[in-house]
Amino acid sequence: MEQLQVEEEKSILEAKSAALLKFEEVKVFHRHRPERALITYALLDAQSDASFMTDSVCKTLQVSGSEVELELSTMAGTTSFSSQLVKDLRIESLADGSVTDLPDMYTRAHIPADRSLIPQPKTCEKWPHLRQLADNIHDEFADAEIGLLLGINCARAIKPREIIPGDNDDPWA
After folding, report:
1. Strand-strand pairing, 105-108 and 77-86
2. Which is it for strands 52-54 and 105-108: parallel, antiparallel or unpaired?
3. ∠99-27-68 over CA atoms, to 5°?
4. Is the entire prediction scored with pTM above 0.85?
5. Cα–Cα distance measured from residue 118 to residue 17, given in angstroms and rounded to the nearest whole number
6. Strand pairing category for 146-150 and 105-108
7. Structural domain includes residue 120
8. pLDDT by residue (tens digit) across 112-155?
9. Is the pLDDT assigned to residue 1 strictly greater than 70?
10. Phi/psi at 124 (nearest 5 deg)?
11. Does residue 171 fall inside a structural domain?
12. Is residue 165 part of a domain?
């Protein structure tokens, strides 16, 4: 009985966390080669002042950029690393088909995000105020890479258009 209780509490905690982080399913492509597109998740991060893409997205799109040195500051400290600066990318929202020009994107080996926090239909269905979102989440892309991190330099893509708050301690979207 206690084992089940722990799993239920973990499930509720995951639902709260999942609703707080904003992931968007998008098609990313170079503006001069829209036929070479990739479906990926974009982590919308209002705490980052720059935007990033993974090396694997860059390779799949067959794009490259100029070499740059970056300094990344987080709570864990400051790190310097080499990156590429890639220009002329766009995303198309799978939710509404809108197309957004991306700012210059820096490359990284990976985007540090927890896949278990990507909202799932079953997570939304657990919360009455979020049930309306369940039909807008595409299960068929569940294995897609988290290939983009969009920061505040891409305000058009990360700006909330609607907020579904729920009660005080409920997850929100």
Report:
1. antiparallel
2. parallel
3. 90
4. no
5. 9
6. unpaired
7. yes
8. 888 877 777 777 788 888 887 777 776 667 788 999 999 999 99
9. no
10. -65, -35
11. no
12. no
CATH assignment of the domain containing 80: 2.40.70
The structure tokens 């979020």 sit at: 130
Q: Kindly state the tokens that stand for 16.
A: 């709260």
Residue 170 maps to a domain = no
Query: E strands of the chain, at which residues?
Result: 22-30, 33-44, 52-54, 66-74, 77-86, 89-93, 99-101, 105-108, 146-150
The pLDDT tens digits for 33-85 are 999 999 999 999 988 999 999 999 999 999 999 999 999 888 899 999 999 99
Distance between CA atoms of 115 and 31, rounded to whole angstroms?
28
**Rounded CA separation 54/56 (Å):** 5
State how many domains the chain has: 1
- Which residues are bridge partners to 110 per DSSP? none
Domain range for 71 is 2-158
Q: Please give the structure tokens belonging to residue 170.
A: 């409920």
SS (H, E, C) 129-166: HHHHHHHHCCHHHCCCCEEEEECHHHHHHHCCCCCCCC
Encoded amino acid at 108, one letter: R
